[in-house]
Design a protein that fits this description.
The complex is a heterodimer of chains A (about 325) and B (about 350). By secondary structure, chain A is of the alpha+beta class. Chain A has nine helices and twelve strands. Helices cover about 35% and strands about 15% of the residues of chain A. The N and C termini of chain A lie far apart (about 45 Å). Chain B contains ten helices and twelve strands. In chain B, the strands form three sheets. A five-stranded mixed beta sheet of chain B has the order 3-2-1-4-5, with helices on both faces. Classes of the chains: A alpha+beta (about 325), B alpha/beta (about 350). At the A-B interface, helix 1 of A face helix 7 and helix 8 of B.
């Protein structure tokens, strides 16, 4: 059975019809493609120096409700904080987008564009392909009909169990690497994890013809990314059917994005903050599909083996699970 | 159906009667009375003294409310009281009165969550169907959204409530508690020069913290009282920062924090409606800031006036009657109170969206 994944997920809203803001120079709205609009920032795709160097532009517009001095202070603080944490963790080898430029007075930060899909999208597609293991039965990656008995494991091909578990281990290791630096992401959802598409193999030309391919590929990825980030259903032309095998492949590096809420944890709070990061990620997995839960176990396993404090964090995670993210408190 | 509601979780005792003529028509407020325990400037209300106040007023107010509503005792279907959250002794006093009335008149009893009372009253008054709710008062600060029969908390304070922050700041500046400290701080802020004193801004994801801004504002306020704090960049002979400037700066800073987490919740759940409830919700500057935020998002702000914003008996009667309508009552032996009663613990059986 192929469950519609979107019905399981909480859908963060974004209407693309909303009026976009006037951007500070040197940016003009003409070369911008709105990727997502959060409460704090607008995220655009544009290019830098050359037309084929895509970049992400994160713009924090002034908030009219805030006192202008306070607004300036916060914007500067946040842009600098995000840039600093990105630069620092990247230097230490955590896979995050490179910072290319920024202007805190005008409220923008420019980063490397990560070509690929969000893990949320990857998981949704994987579920749609019917590749999830339900009640110990693995289904065939067709439409998912007749997946009742059959205790067999589908190892080969895109969407096999082995491949997805390997992806989970890469996620666990990437998060562990960040946490090992005592940096906590603050909003670690599957939408903020990207699977970077591996560079296309030069020899294998796709059957559609090489002249058409880059454009088609680019459109697919960007529209899907936009859809994924705004929590919408993918565009009508379901790409999983006619897509070249590469696009359903689970190969590639995990890249952590959106460090708007990231913070250096203090000694006292670091286990709690790390555990909350994992808890938020666990909730995001659970929201994708009930059967995605066993996948998350693999994330935790890899996380647990990756750095010295991890065991303590996992123990703390059990506490966080019991009480939810929120402590019980007066009021 | 008619309900009598008794509220006494903090320094106000509120008694009200409400009628729900039918499930489809809007509720009718029959009476809504309140008396507030006001402590002298520089002090807060202590639980023990507040409980004494409530005990002294409850009989008078119930009599008056029933008379004003023009109903007979026999017409009342259910007695509703605040079960929590709140201060223990005042809650106990009012719950005792509710139990007594229930036994005396032979009526069923319903224990109501104070926060849910605020939300339901706000929805009923404003007709906001499914808003993100900002609940801000002296004891509570929560951003709430409804999902699957629960009012879920998206963000909240990590330490003290915003109203508590304002009240305690008012004490430092010896601002009177009558009619309530937040109102007086608001009036001071309106008279400020617009100069913004730098205070900590503490938003952590969906949550915020008010103890840091309060501690910083308190330290600066003492310097203001002693006439030692001058405006930044104006040197030794610079203009003095006034109490008005301090009130303005505190409001600007902590209200911006509230709006930010509310906006985040709206973006997350995809709602364009926002409902402000609780005593701090009557602040005009907060309502204005919320309006500016909502306008940018193409949304609408719903707010109520002080009759329904500030703690009252009507909201308890209203929420209790909704729950009573689903067949839920509280047995006398279970009719306790609790200081810790989270909004999301209540099963909202009366909504089916």
């Amino acid at each position: 059975m192929a469950l519609p994944a979107a019905s399981q997920t909480a859908s963060p809203s974004t209407t693309t019809t909303q009026p976009s803001h006037i951007l500070p120079a040197p940016f003009t709205n003409s070369q911008l493609e709105l990727l997502t609009q959060g409460a704090e920032a607008l995220v655009y795709r544009t290019h830098f120096l050359t037309p084929n160097t895509p970049v992400v532009l994160k713009y924090r517009p002034p908030k009219p409700y805030r006192h202008p001095i306070l607004d300036k202070r916060l914007t500067k603080l946040r842009i600098l904080a995000e840039a600093r944490v990105l630069v620092r963790v990247r230097k230490e080898g955590v896979p995050v987008p490179a910072v290319l430029g920024g202007d805190w007075d005008n409220g923008w930060l420019m980063m490397e564009f990560v070509e690929g899909k969000t893990v949320r999208r990857v998981l949704d597609e994987w579920v749609e392909r019917g590749a999830f293991k339900e009640e110990r039965s693995a289904s065939i990656p067709e439409e998912g009909e007749g997946d009742n008995d059959a205790g067999k494991q589908n190892q080969g091909g895109g969407g096999g169990d082995g491949e997805i578990l390997d992806l989970m281990r890469r996620i666990g290791r990437a998060v562990a690497k960040l946490h090992d630096l005592a940096v906590c992401h603050g909003d670690l959802t599957t939408s903020n994890l990207m699977l970077r598409a591996p560079p296309p193999p030069k020899e294998e030309a796709s059957p559609e013809g090489s002249s058409q391919k880059p454009l088609a590929g680019r459109q697919t990825v960007s529209t899907m990314r936009e859809a994924a980030m705004s929590g919408e259903e993918p565009p009508v032309a379901a790409p999983s059917k006619v897509e070249p095998a590469r696009d359903s492949s689970l190969a590639g590096d995990i890249v952590l994005i959106d460090f708007g809420l990231a913070a250096q944890a203090t000694k006292q709070s670091q286990d709690e903050d790390r555990a909350v990061d994992l808890y938020v990620l666990e909730r995001a997995f659970a929201a994708t599909h009930p059967s995605a839960e066993y996948l998350f176990q693999e994330v935790l396993k890899a996380y647990g083996e990756s750095f010295s404090d991890a065991k303590r964090v996992l123990k703390r995670l059990a506490d966080v699970r019991l009480r939810g993210r929120k402590r019980s408190m007066i009021g | 159906m008619i309900a009598l509601g008794l509220e006494g979780s903090a320094n106000k005792i509120g008694i009200g009667l409400i009628s729900h003529p039918s499930p489809t028509s809007p509720p009718i407020v029959l009476s809504n009375l309140r008396h507030t325990y006001i402590s002298p400037p520089g002090t807060g209300f202590l639980p023990k003294d507040t409980a004494i106040h409530h005990r002294a007023w409850v009989v008078r107010l119930v009599k008056q409310a029933v008379r004003q509503a023009g109903v007979r005792i026999a017409d009342i279907d259910v007695i509703c009281y605040t079960r929590g959250p709140g201060m223990g002794p005042p809650l106990q006093s009012v719950a005792l009165a509710a139990r007594t009335l229930a036994l005396l008149w032979g009526k069923p009893l319903v224990g109501v969550n104070h926060c849910v009372g605020h939300i339901e009253m706000g929805r009923a008054i404003t007709h906001a169907s499914n808003p993100v709710v900002l609940y801000v008062s002296g004891g509570n600060t929560q951003v709430i959204a409804y999902s699957a029969n629960r009012y879920r908390i998206f963000g909240e304070t990590l330490d003290i409530a915003i109203g508590n922050c304002i009240d305690r700041f008012a004490r430092t500046l010896m601002i009177p508690n009558d009619p309530f400290p937040g109102y007086n701080v608001e009036q001071f802020a309106k008279r400020g020069s617009g100069y913004l004193v730098d205070l900590p801004y503490t938003v952590k994801g969906m949550d915020c913290s008010f103890s840091g801004p309060l501690a910083a504002a308190d330290i600066l306020a003492r310097e203001v009282v002693e006439g030692r704090l001058r405006k930044e960049g104006e040197g030794e002979e610079g203009e003095l920062v006034t109490r008005e400037d301090m009130c303005f700066s505190l409001q600007e800073t902590i209200f911006a924090m509230l709006i930010e987490i509310t906006e985040r919740a709206m973006a997350h759940v995809g709602s364009t409606q926002v409902l402000v409830v609780g005593g701090v919700g009557s602040n005009e500057r907060l309502q204005q800031m919320m309006g500016l935020m909502a306008r940018d998002r193409g949304g609408t702000v719903f707010a109520t006036d002080e009759r329904f914003c500030i703690d009252n008996g009507i909201m308890i009667a209203h929420a209790g009657l909704l729950e009573y309508g689903t067949g839920v009552t509280t047995k006398i032996e279970d009719s306790d109170v609790t200081q810790r009663f989270r909004t999301d613990e209540v099963y909202v059986g009366w909504r089916d969206d």
